[in-house]
Amino acid sequence: MKYDIILAGVGGQGVLSIAAIIAAAAMKDGLSVRQSEVHGMSQRGGGVSAHLRLSDGEIASDLIPLGSADMILAMEPMESLRYLPWLSENGVLVTAAEPFVNIGNYPELEKVYGAINALPTSHIVKSAELAKEAGNIKCENMVLIGAALEYMPVSKETVLQAVRDRFEKKDPALVEANAKALELGAKR
Amino acid sequence: MNESVLLGDEALALGAIHAGLSAGFGYPGTPSTEILEYLIDNYEKNGGPLAQWCSNEKTAYEAALGVSFAGKRSLVTMKHVGLNVAADPFMNSSLLGIKGGIVVIVADDPSMHSSQGEQDSRFYADFAMIPCFEPVNQQQAYEMMFDAFALSEEKHVPVLMRMVTRLSHSRAVVHAFDESKRLPQNKLAKGDRKEWMLLPALARKNYDNMLAKQGDFVAWSDNNSWNKLVLNEKRTDLAIVTSGLGRNYFLENIEDYKKLCGDKGLPSMLHIGTLPLPRGLLGKLADSAQKILVIEEGMPFVEKRLAGILPQKTEVVGKLTGLLPASGELNPDTVRKALGLEPVPTAAGLLSQNDEAASALCEALPGRPPQLCKGCPHFDSYTALNMAVAELKKKAGEDGVCVCADIGCYSLGAGAPLNATETIVCMGASVGMARGASQAGVKYAFGVIGDSTFMHSGMTNLVDCVSTKTPVTIMILDNSIVAMTGCQKTIIPSSSFEPLVKGLGVEPEHVRVLDTNPSKHEENAKILVEEAEYRGVSVVIMRRECLEAFRIRTKAEKIKKAAEQAKK
Known about the structure:
The structure holds two protein chains of two kinds. By secondary structure, chain A is of the alpha/beta class. Chain A has a single domain (about 1-185), classed as Pyruvate-ferredoxin oxidoreductase, PFOR, domain III (Pyruvate-ferredoxin Oxidoreductase, domain 3). Chain A has helices spanning about 15-30, 75-80, 110-115, 125-135, 140-150, 155-165, 170-185, and strands at about 1-10, 30-35, 45-55, 70-75, 85-95, 120-125. Chain A has a six-stranded mixed beta sheet with strand order 2-3-1-4-5-6, sandwiched between helices. Chain B folds into three domains: about 5-220, Rossmann fold (3-Layer(aba) Sandwich), CATH 3.40.50.970; about 230-340, Rossmann fold (3-Layer(aba) Sandwich), CATH 3.40.50; about 375-550, Rossmann fold, CATH 3.40.50. In chain B, about 45% of the residues lie in helices and about 15% in strands. Chain B is built from 21 helices and 19 strands. In chain B, the strands form four sheets. A seven-stranded mixed beta sheet of chain B has the order 3-2-4-5-7-6-12, sandwiched between helices. In chain B, helix 14 (about 345-355) crosses helix 15 (about 355-365) and helix 16 (about 375-395) packs across helix 20. Chain B is globular, with a radius of gyration of 27 Å. The two termini of chain B are about 35 Å apart. Chains A and B meet through helix 1, strand 2, helix 2, strand 5 and helix 3 of A and helix 7, strand 8, helix 9, helix 13 and helix 14 of B. Strand 2 (about 30-35) of chain A pairs antiparallel with strand 8 of chain B, so a sheet runs across the interface.
């Protein structure tokens, strides 16, 4: 079994945090994990992506080959489309709905949504709204993980445990809000 | 529970700690930064071995040598271009009688994700004639540290550990060795002075000793289990050599490749994990087949040597023959193509068949390059500078003004909308180039340099300007942090810059300290013009704390306060 996920977004949106939580959950479930990211320049408002590979066997490459990603999970709609060459024909695209417009030539949003909807399986999630409903805009990442859960080989319980491990010491209030965000995301 | 999820960088650090490290030094540089960050965290929180940032890679290397001379294990970390800075102690250290093991960890950056180039540090190992390890995954990174330290002490030689971005910044589970296999630190015991002083008479003897070790190193490499030779007699047409992450990308395609190879099976294969090149193993491989495909991460170091320049019976193919891309990092897809496999269908391909408009949109998505954070002090510094430059160009013409910049977050002033800089070459070059340009006739020569970059290599260039009284205006962008590499502490505090610059001999009236913020653009521009007009050395310190550093600092203070409250 293998499950390859490309995470995408803009520097500062928490792309790496999402990757870390899914990776931690997968390891609790006994899977091998490889999580590849590029630090440095992209932090500053540039495009960011991470390759996350889950498997019940060995994993050779840190990078996901073209056409091999089972999912694109994105914090930003335009960024979700950037990695289509990596998505398999049967792959799933899950993205936040809100555009992050920090460049002058951002394409028409309707066209971006149109391209996303043209794929066999895709979900545009109103993650910012749902995060507010869960009680904290910072939980937007968790909403997206919730929205992607039904496809990934990780269980809700282990994701919640991974969230608890990560946030309990730093910010306990966030644990509850994150749990709610996960639920709301799963219901989409 | 010896399992933990670690970046390649972190795996190296943990391996060093478990192998009896006494001290680690370095300078921040993507993708190597996390190695020393892990060690510093361990030192400050768990009382682990000493770990400290240094002014630059040369001083870091020299500190590590001092530890080695005292008989203890040390390491030094840097990115590939950092080895250029440390090259003087590095090259000369290969002639020393190394006492405590010293491992030089250099993280290369194929595809230049955050660097000026993609130079390959294996050439340096070859140049210095020292052994080199290259791990392909996090577990190897951890284990190789033990081997590297042991080899360094056995053969009295520095050892290079070569990393690349894709492994440095990738996480996987690492199984650490049991307590029983972990090593204590060495005891204090100085090296032999005859082997540590490179006066010509002594250096000649040391050099002969070094040359005599070379045969040992080749034998070591030939017998080393990190180099794996698997022969297949049925395949006489092709053999494959992998080096570094090339092996991973080959393995990623192995199931499909086996099908392509059919009954005769996979070609004979050799994976190279250590240098010098395992000649014996390579010889066996070359004897087995007419052609060798080299799949190596980085510059064609192995491939070039195998191909040679004299005619030979083995055909060597790879980057040099166009089968693999000459530049940029390898990936599973370029390797797939080189193996002769067809590409796999993708969602992008599907879209191009079903929805032309959508497909066209996806193929032409605008880039999203990194930018200065909103509210960054550098934005204000460059805005003021641009205003000053516009005015000065009216007087002196286009060629009468130049802005030489440097390496850090402020390098991002090169892009739109600021377009403020004209040169960015290497650490500290801004000041030196402003000096040269000024002496060549550029009337208003600006050097723009960050606080940490200035301490790294700007000071000596400034001394040159002062000593020759060359008219330059040096802007030190003091945001009180080493920002681009992830907010490490600067080596001296902001308050030390003004007296330091004055101490170097810049006239006090021409050392200006300005608040760089949005309300001060015009005022600061005026001062910059004033200082540019002055026909001597001016240093203008633009000061405001980095937003990210501010955020990290206040968050840490908040957590500390909460912990103190909890105790009460």
